[in-house]
Amino acid sequence: MTGFIDTFTLGGPGPTIAIKDTIDIAGYPTRAASRALADAPPATRHADVVRQLLDAGWQIAGKANMHELAFGMTGINDYTGTPINPQDAARIPGGSSSGSASLVGLGQVDAALGTDTGGSIRGPAACCGVLGLKPTFDRVSRSGVAPADTTLDCVGPFTRDMGTMAAVMAAIAPGFDRVRALRPLRECTVARVAVNADPSILAALDAATARAECRSHGVVLDTLGAAFDAGISIINAETFAAFGHLVETGKLGADLDARLRAAAATTPAALAHAESVRRCFTEQIDRALADADVLVLPTLPALPITLEEARSGVSVIAMSSLIRPFNLSGHPALSMPMPLAGSPLKAGLQIVGRKGADEHVCAIAAHFEAAFAA
């Protein structure tokens, strides 16, 4: 079973939840699905989010598999195995929280925790046809989560329905208003972000907005591409700072070894430019949200490629083009399954809200969920 790295039962008697292998559970090693960390000692204390879940009565079912060191978009892992994509076993499950998305999509747990540094919750959620939320940066504690130092990474949940999503958030985000997150909306205004994506996915987005009977208008984010590039520079620098020392072990997968070596070349000038872009992009998002409840856009610009294509070297960097920028800005962003005309697969609808307005993002997702079910 490649969705799990370790299976065990802890806590309860509530619903079941899997925990990504970058999040500490006392008594179990945190190995980030890497051979280079295979001998890591057991964690001595729970991460804050684990303790909060246990206090709320959730039952932890085990550690979820992932893309090695949380540094990849495919979810392929030749050391711990590659989780199954529940929508299509021939396609990649997405990374880096691949096991979390797979386990939820397969119905093996009620929910899972993942982490999202450059789309690592929303990307797998879209690939696997489930819900995934990247909360506002710092809304959820990262104490006990690797890497320890980050300006991008967020802990968030995967679920199959918004009711469970709100329940997880109520457990891990102190002050989260579960009732407000599920309160029916009388009206909502969405700004459709102009992006390059597969025409069928853009058509599905338009159909979803109409079906939900939202007022809508278009918005252009001319710094979106620059924010994507800036996000790459920062994630490269911060991931190398956390894990670059593992290159010398010779135990990393080939893709991780190459990516970490490349990340080492990130220059101070590139980081300074990235921080300048972060400020400009964040301001542009805030301005766009002054005239709308949320922004909506596809989670991924195309359906996930096949495992065979990924293994043959087809690039997946564009997978994160529409999700990585919102790590840079820190806004809450949720991906939910969206019907795709003429296809058994579902695409991802991404909903981006104001900082701190995670409940409102959830309420609008619940509104779309009800519209899709009608």
UniProtKB/TrEMBL annotation:
Entry superkingdom: Bacteria
PROSITE patterns xrefs: AMIDASES
PANTHER family: GLUTAMYL-TRNA(GLN) AMIDOTRANSFERASE SUBUNIT A, TRANSAMIDASE
Descriptive protein name: Amidase
Organism: Trinickia dinghuensis
A Gene Ontology molecular function term of the record: catalytic activity
Residue ranges constituting the Amidase domain according to the UniProt record: 17-173, 262-362
Xref: InterPro entries: Amidase, Amidase_CS, Amidase_dom, AS_sf
Pfam families: Amidase
